[in-house]
């Protein structure tokens, strides 16, 4: 008798606001097997003391409203219910939430920038927990930048509630100091004919585990999830994506690329997509590529696609990890380009198509400079 294949949806079947509803991870679970639990500083088992200090400052476009509210605000938690213990712990532990609202039919004149700054020099100052809700009302358009810097042990949830015909573009930059630990869930809920564009850049921190997810409440939703990461020696950078197609005629596209260098550099990318029986006409694709620049680096890449209807417009996935192409390097060196410069050009070419998608010029230039600094190491 053959082994039964566990549906992808089983990995995301549980959801609750209460951390007690989730068992403490042991590292043997499918959703935790790649994460070094000892480096989470107690975020996963409830032992992290809530004494950390993370400050959130918002530089909002003039058309956008920003509120700081308490836990009892009825708008919080409407778009997302935590799907693992750390997410539930973050939801149960935050004291104040930030709500950003783009009014109906408004087109924001400039990006809204959310600065999330950890004030600890290292990771030994206790944990902090946060919550952000971004509401884009029907037919509105906005660009949002989430900029994470400083030192912290931090767990948070970010909800994106995108109304009918609305468009939200988000750039999330994880540029933490060495030693920082960040576990975050970003969930986008798309209304009818809503558009969501996400660009994730993960560079800093000791351990970062980011889980972007998407759900659709009506037909016509269009989600594009893009990510870029550069992993150095000893770093663990993990991205776990979940796209739930549960209504007809929606689209999703996922493209993540990463470069790794140094002993113990570890990247993890998990891409879970489900097309449920009622989601006829779905069009989805996911891609992950990893470039290993040195010995001692490791990339784990696992795309999962579960299709429960035969009536789809398109569905596929691809994943590959490999070293620098010696032929490319040789070609450039044969034309008088030194090895280090040839290596830099190849890596730039690897990331070039993704970088063009960052519409905020200052962030694009900052990411380019960061990649240059990584290569200079």
TrEMBL record:
<dbReference type="InterPro" id="IPR000825">
    <property type="entry name" value="SUF_FeS_clus_asmbl_SufBD_core"/>
</dbReference>
<protein>
    <submittedName>
        <fullName>Fe-S cluster assembly protein SufD</fullName>
    </submittedName>
</protein>
<comment type="similarity">
    <text>Belongs to the iron-sulfur cluster assembly SufBD family.</text>
</comment>
<dbReference type="InterPro" id="IPR011542">
    <property type="entry name" value="SUF_FeS_clus_asmbl_SufD"/>
</dbReference>
<dbReference type="InterPro" id="IPR055346">
    <property type="entry name" value="Fe-S_cluster_assembly_SufBD"/>
</dbReference>
<feature type="domain" description="SUF system FeS cluster assembly SufBD core">
    <location>
        <begin position="125"/>
        <end position="350"/>
    </location>
</feature>
<dbReference type="InterPro" id="IPR037284">
    <property type="entry name" value="SUF_FeS_clus_asmbl_SufBD_sf"/>
</dbReference>
<dbReference type="Pfam" id="PF01458">
    <property type="entry name" value="SUFBD_core"/>
</dbReference>
<feature type="region of interest" description="Disordered">
    <location>
        <begin position="1"/>
        <end position="24"/>
    </location>
</feature>
């Amino acid at each position: 008798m053959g082994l039964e294949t566990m549906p992808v949806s089983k990995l995301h079947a549980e959801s609750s606001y209460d951390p007690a509803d989730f068992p403490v991870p042991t590292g043997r679970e499918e959703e935790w097997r790649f994460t070094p639990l000892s480096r989470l500083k107690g975020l996963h088992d409830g032992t992290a003391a809530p004494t950390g200090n993370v400050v959130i400052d918002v530089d909002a476009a003039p058309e956008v409203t920003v509120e700081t509210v308490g836990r009892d605000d009825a708008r919080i938690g409407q778009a997302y219910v935590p799907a693992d213990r750390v997410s539930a712990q973050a939801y149960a532990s935050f004291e104040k939430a930030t709500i950003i609202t783009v009014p109906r039919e408004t087109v924001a004149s400039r990006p809204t920038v959310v600065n999330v700054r950890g004030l600890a020099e290292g990771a030994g100052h206790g944990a902090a927990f946060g919550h952000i809700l971004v509401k884009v009302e029907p037919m509105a358009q906005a660009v949002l930048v989430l900029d994470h810097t400083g030192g912290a042990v931090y767990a948070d949830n970010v909800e994106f509630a995108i109304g009918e015909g609305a468009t939200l573009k988000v750039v999330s930059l994880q540029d933490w100091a060495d030693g920082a630990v960040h576990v975050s869930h970003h969930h986008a809920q798309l209304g009818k004919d809503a558009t969501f564009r996400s660009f994730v850049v993960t560079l800093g921190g000791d351990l970062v585990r980011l889980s972007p997810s998407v759900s659709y409440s009506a037909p016509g939703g269009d989600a594009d999830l893009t990510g870029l990461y550069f992993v150095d020696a000893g770093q663990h950078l993990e991205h776990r994506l979940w796209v739930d197609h549960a209504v007809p005629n929606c689209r999703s596209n996922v493209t993540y690329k990463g470069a790794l260098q140094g002993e113990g550099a570890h990247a993890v990318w998990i891409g879970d997509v489900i097309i449920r029986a009622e989601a006829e006409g779905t069009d989805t694709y996911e891609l992950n590529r990893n470039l290993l620049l040195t010995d001692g680096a490791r990339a784990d890449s696992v795309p999962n696609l579960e299709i429960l209807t035969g009536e789809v417009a398109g569905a596929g996935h691809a994943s590959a990890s490999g070293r620098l192409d010696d032929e490319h390097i040789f070609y450039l060196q044969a034309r008088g380009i030194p090895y280090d410069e040839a290596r830099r050009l190849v890596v730039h070419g690897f990331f070039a198509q993704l970088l063009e998608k960052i519409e905020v010029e200052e962030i694009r230039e900052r990411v380019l400079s960061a990649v240059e600094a990584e290569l200079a190491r």
